[in-house]
Amino acid sequence: MASQVSGLQGTPVLLTLHYAYPITIFVYYIISSGVAICTLQTKSAEESHGRRRTIIWLLMFAILTYLAQLLNLVVRSLIRHEFPSEQDTIIGLLSCILVFGVEFAGLSESEKPVWYPFTGSFALALVFEAIMQTLSFIVRSPEPLTVAEFLDLSAAATRYLAFVLTLIAYLEGMYRSRQEKSSDAERQSLLKKASDLAATNAAGDQADDEAGQNNYGATTSDDSTTSDESTDDSRKSTTETPESPWERRQRQASEKMEKRLKEKGNWITYAKSFMVFFPYVWPVKNKPLQTRIFLVGCCLLAMNFVNVLIPRQLGIVMDSLGGTNGRNPWIEVLVFAGLKLIASEAGLSLLRQWLWIPVEYYSFDAMSTAAYSHVLNLSSDFHDSKSSSDIMMAIQSGQSISNMLDSICFQALPMLIDMGVAFVYLSITFGPYEGFITVATAAIFMYIATRMISRMRSARRSEVSAWFEEHYIRQAGIQGWATVTCFNQIGHEERRYSAAVKERVAKSQKVFLGYIFAYALQFLVLLSGLMAGAFLAVYQVTHGQATPGDFIMLLTYWAQLVAPLTFFAGLGKTISRDLIHAEQLLEIMQTKPTVVSKVDAPPLVFDGGHVRFKNVCFSYDKKKDILKDVSFTATPGKTIAFVGATGAGKSTILKLIDRFYDVTEGSIEIDGQDIRDVDLFSLRAQIGVVPQSPILFDDTIMSNVRYANLTATDEEVYEACKAASVHEQILGFADGYQTRVGERGIKLSGGELQRVAIARAILKRPEIVLLDEATSAVDTETEQRIQEALRLLCEGRTTFIVAHRLSTIMNADSIIVVTGGTLVEQGSHEELIRANGKYAELWSKQVFVKPKHKDASDDNSVTKGHKALGLINDLTLERTNSELAKVKSVSSLRDQSDSSTGSETALEDGSETEQATEHKKEV
Ligand SMILES: Nc1ncnc2c1ncn2[C@@H]1O[C@H](COP(=O)(O)OP(=O)(O)OP(=O)(O)O)[C@@H](O)[C@H]1O
């Protein structure tokens, strides 16, 4: 941009070039940076360029040459005592300073920038400068150069040189780093010996570990998606302060987002994955709602229009009052009032919200219902692996998707239009200078505001951590009040809490002060812009180029621009926070249930309840086998009891019958139908489950029992409860069947809870019963009642019991002994005792150690044994004696065979024999 002082301003091509030059550079820079961000190149830029600093200095020098040209122009105008007439030149120079200033800031802030937005701009600058120089020489008069022209030309030439050097420095730096890389590679392959390699690997592993432990900053920062430098900031501070649970959650969510972003490769594909939510935010099949959305769009455009009209009308009112435009002030004020009304909360805003509310609620309704339903339909593996609070938080985060759309559609887009219109309108009314001042002020304001937000991040984070710390200390003190009081630590807790509050207050103050200063600085920038604009307007009004009304219009317009600017400054942060929240829901919505009915699967045709396990293998995590080649058959109406040590896989077998999980290998058949081939709901409709620790809803007993069959009458519920021997007890409660049971049934005793659960199962009238018998100790009478209830429930139904009571085990038609996921024995009690295998071993241990009538307090050692095996000896003394008699005969048989086979087995069973002998004596 040279020779502008040589009187060539009238050349239309040059005039256009003066404007086109900075605009082209700016558009190129914005688009190429956008592409770099969208395709994640900003994240993968791994090396810093060796000549970055040199390039920054050269760029600064280039900016100074624009400034020098500008000064040259101003000084020349001052000498001539006239207002500079080369408007296009001045605007061009100022715009170049602004555009390259933005690039300068970008380059200075990023250690590892993506280079092509910068180098491309420099190359474009060289092309523009060359064309403009050539053109200006062609059209200039052949007179000798004046001093001003000479200075101007020198500045332009020096800048040209600076841009050339910038590109050379860039290329040289690239070449050098390539050279270094290749020589590094050569050196490494030559120098590294096996021992060095081992050492390096170990060090690398350690470094990786450390990085893994401290990788918070790399992924957590809210703005990490847009600024490399900011991630460094957060990394630094993470090493200083321990992570709070809140931070951990945020970090994990953010890590997930980063991971998926990397997988997707760019922001566009990443954003596309959010299309799953489209049917919930856009009323696909609802025409009236779609019409409303269209009308909301019209309202927004109308609002943009009114936003221009209001300042303009105020200007007209002012001019009509001053008599400069010959209009009737009364009418103009009325028009102004009308426009204000339209723009107010009682006008377009009201209409827009009235139109929008049903759409918003549609979205809220559709999103929450879909998320909840999706979660309920997911399989056991998902629910087992997630904490319920995480799932609930994720469902709630559906709101952030609506928020994000709200921010973009109803705030960002209209504000962008407002700002564009402001720029054009002010440029037309007051000339390009005013337009430039508006744009420059907006750019500087945005830059400062985003920098401030990013700088405040670590202060805000430690404030939130302090909030949580305070909360935890308070909660621990109140929840553990009894412990605090017992240990006489009230003073200690008071001091701890007071210190936490002080810490939090100090941090809050720091953040608050930070905000106050940040706002002050932002408004100073705005004020400077306003002042510059106002001075220019005053100049034009005093020179008759504009009216006082125009001046008022300018002031009003400026006031209107403050809100959009502040909003835009925080937009990136808001959107990235909403994205992180939405990501949690997205992850859930993308999870597919692993156990589902096949398409058009027929319902289960029940025919007696013949259940068959065929070579079933199962693993929860595909790593550890839980069941190995399990095969057995259950005859209709019979009871199968599973016994075995804890963790053997008994409950897992029950879960497979109910299809909470699918077998990994083999199959399970009910009446000849593979349970994977029948409709899942028809399968579960035939199965009644009484879990070991039944969970009731925080509702009345009536509702809890009726949950098994929502259409059951009160009478049917009473019958079920009578069958479960709990009816009388329920009637004894203050509110009878309307008694609320508390969260998870906390207000009921263990025995009551279990019988209510049995009643619930009875009401379902299942064909197959799955029972995880409780091991919890209940009094003898309750236990008998439970047994009776269970007997009624299981009568005539194929029943599978994870048995813990000896009486249940012995009464079962068939007993299966499970050890380490395999079936080791199967048969009736008598058969298994006679077989004298694992079952006889397990059983005899129990029957010897704790006959039912015995006082539990006198044999603690025995109770330990119980827990390991999960069995309870609930036999009566007479039954114990008679069973012992059988065992005695088996033992004597075994003794005989032992003595004949040698001493090995005797040694193995030594402890058991000792124990048995002791108890035999006792009995
Ligand atoms: N949801 C799960 N995910 C992963 N592993 C599991 C899961 N549930 C159980 N396991 C593992 O499977 C194995 C068998 O568990 P299972 O509950 O079937 O044992 P069990 O014989 O019923 O024991 P207990 O009598 O103590 O209830 C155990 O090692 C357990 O840790």
TrEMBL record:
GO cellular-component term (any): membrane
Keyword field: ATP-binding, Membrane, Nucleotide-binding, Transmembrane, Transmembrane helix, Transport
Region described as Disordered: spans on this chain: 202-258, 886-923
Membrane topology (UniProt): Multi-pass membrane protein
UniProt cross-references to InterPro entries, sorted A to Z: AAA+_ATPase (IPR003593), ABC1_TM_dom (IPR011527), ABC1_TM_sf (IPR036640), ABC_transporter-like_ATP-bd (IPR003439), ABC_transporter-like_CS (IPR017871), P-loop_NTPase (IPR027417), Type_1_exporter (IPR039421)
Subcellular location: Membrane
Basic and acidic residues: bias regions: 245-258
TM annotation in the entry: 20-42, 54-75, 90-107, 114-138, 150-171, 267-283, 289-310, 408-430, 436-453, 512-539, 551-571
ABC transporter domain residues: 611-845
ATP-binding found in the keyword field: yes
Domain ABC transmembrane type-1: 294-577
Comp. bias intervals (Low complexity): 889-903
Family: Belongs to the ABC transporter superfamily. ABCB family. Heavy Metal importer (TC 3.A.1.210) subfamily.
Protein name, per record: Heavy metal tolerance protein
Biological source species: Podospora appendiculata
